[in-house]
Amino acid sequence: MRILIGYNGSDAATAAIDDLSRAGFPDETEAIVLTVSESLLRPKSVSEASAIAIAGKTALCREFPTWTVKAETASGSPAHEILARSESFNPDVIVVGEPHQLFPQGNIFFGHTSQAILAEAGCSVRIARGTENENPQPARLLVGFDGSTGSIHAVEVITMRKWPADTMVRLLAVADSSVLSSIGRFTPQMNDAAVEARFASQWAETLAATSLEKLRQAGILASVEVRFGHPREILVDEAEYWKADTIFVGPHCSPNSNGRLLIGSVSSGVAARANSTVEVVRR
Prior knowledge:
The chain has 283 residues and is an alpha/beta fold. It has a domain at 136-273: HUPs (Rossmann fold), CATH 3.40.50.620. Helices cover 41% and strands 21% of the residues. The chain has helices spanning 11-19, 46-63, 78-89, 112-120, 149-159, 177-186, 193-217, 231-242, 265-273, and strands spanning 2-6, 30-37, 68-75, 93-97, 124-128, 140-144, 168-175, 221-228, 246-249, 277-280. Strands 3-2-1-4-5-10-9-6-7-8 form a ten-stranded mixed β-sheet, sandwiched between helices. Helix 5 links the parallel strand 6 (140-144) and strand 7. It is globular, with a radius of gyration of 20 Å. The two termini are 13 Å apart. 43% of the residues are buried.
């Protein structure tokens, strides 16, 4: 497992390192802590960047003594330098920190560096926000699940990681009410709310059956839930209500250089608005 961590010494970046203890990464992980100096924001010099990178490496080694960790520096635009290093390092995941949201609905736009990396990276991106829970609970992972290749791959990624006992995964299928309403025009009984809810539940269970079985075989407590509304809003609300540590979503784009710029409004919207960590999974 290889991870590339963009680290600038801020509170959000430090929280991102703390958050890695709930990411399920294996003992043999190889990590690079990359600090980029730039002219306007801290760190402004190579020497300051080097000290920050070493501090990040020290914190990571203390938390994960079996990992192989390197501290590196670069100069220029943080997003550009992190993306450039990812091309040569070929990580499985890029990790960047974002502060917790101040408003219930989050921000339409979040950090420029996170936005650029999320849009252009050729691997998975973890927008880490740490945890506000004073009493840590078993890990709770929420997966935006619609049966697409991206959502199925997100489940596969979870099954390949190392999770503590009692880790829970909730597959959340969001039913579009407009679709069910259109079905109701041809099937009158679908206009009944109870029938509509039952139909949506059966649809979600059928859609997620194989993925649920894979999770359970991996020793993870797995369930599927269905909600009505817009996926971007429902995922953020459900994560807040369920106190999820991480939301996993697929990018809904082809895994090539052109497709990287089109990660989808759901993935980018969830990453911007959520108050929890969000991992956008790419192959």
